Amino acid sequence: MRIIITGAGISGLSTYLFLRKHLPPSLSYTIHIYESHRPRPSTTTNSQPHSFETLSASTALVGGGLGVSPNGMRTLYALSPSLHTAVSAQGFPCEKFLFLGENGWTLGVQRTGDNGGYDGPNGREEVCVSSSRHGLWQCLMEAVGEGVVRYRKVVGVDVKGSVKIVRFEDGGEEECDLLVGADGVRSVVRGCLFGGEYGPRYTGASGIGGFINMDLPERVAEHKAMVFTFGGSGFFGYASGGPAEAKNVMWWSTFDTDALPSREDLDPDAIKVEMQKRHANSADPAVRDIMAKAEVESIYPTWVLPDLPHWGENGIVLVGDAAHALSPTTGQGASQALEDAQTLSLLLAETLKRAHDSGAEGMSTAEKEKEAVALSIKLLYEIRAPRIKAIAERGRKMDGGKRKMSKIEEYGMYCFLWLMMHVAILRKLALGDVNAQLYGWSAKAEVEKALKGVESLPS
């Protein structure tokens, strides 16, 4: 079986690793990963942003920061305990989320621990790990190994029977039996499946961020926290971008734009001045200190995707942002990409094993494998799409807290957030049991349940 993965970001690299871990040893296969851009160096300080045209075009532009949620860390542990250790070591385990008002009010404190996740209180607890995106990506890249990722830009896909023909910008072509589109929000592979439909939608907000070499703010160092500040003029967050001793603070903010910014709008100095104006009234001395020292290193429009009717067919499948670009408010982008990779690999491993063990007469090995792939793609969507939809909906409910608002709206938001943090029954009514839904989920259990009633491969 010939497998091609397009995109060498978090989604593509983790899919490669999970496939190598789970595909049955009896299966003869190759896996090639293609990426359009060589990654830029680690973002630490004073780096220059990429041109506007490449901000959303590549999965290997790995600037900016993120949080790997407990469910994401648990997925990494299932992939490789040593990889889990490496990601934890290069990042900063955050035990708490602190939610503040720009006026100085503490709106709430939330533990990030998952109480053992799917395994319950007797399981190993995971917490959120804050990290540079590059740090997480580099850990995955080192696990993949040198020479695996090939830097060629995919520009199109043709389907001839059961064969997928991947076309490259340099004029070359390569055939495969399974094509995994892990090529991000502007996915070429998704375009092959749906044409111009179901493209990314600009949310009306853009994000900026960067890293500063400085002592960790008191709230981060003493409480081992990630801090979120909400105000009438926008949103500001900060955390540690690495181990405490590295003294590397990552920060991020959002700003409204009526239309998608043009390249001419992307002046880091002007954007910094506007950011300082938006948050000039912040009561948090850490926010003021960070803004004084900050250089805008990452500027990125935020995109979401509409719900897709499926995630693949004819041996083509989408994972990660190519299937479901989530609002940054969810804090689940990287973690859901990891869960996609794990779920797809577990499905393929079991269906291909069944295919090879099958005594079905009149079917060649290639035909059996084709049916196994088709079943895996179908079940991936049935397992993952409802979970993604619920996470996206929660994100939409919270996105309003990052937009401009009047003083009345601002204080109304403070009251709403305070109630959500302090009155459990109201929180569950508005958002559901978030921790249980996010952290009490198991790809392995969901795959076993989905395959329980499948006695044989579809004919």
Automatic annotation (TrEMBL):
Nuclease is among the record's keywords: no
One Pfam family in the UniProt entry: FAD_binding_3
Domain FAD-binding stretches: 164-374
Keywords, alphabetical: FAD, Flavoprotein, Monooxygenase, Oxidoreductase
Transmembrane segments: none
InterPro entries: FAD-bd, FAD-dep_Monooxygenase_BioMet, FAD/NAD-bd_sf
Alphabetized GO MF terms: FAD binding; monooxygenase activity
Assigned protein family: Belongs to the paxM FAD-dependent monooxygenase family.
Name recorded for this polypeptide: FAD-binding domain-containing protein
Species of provenance: Cercophora newfieldiana
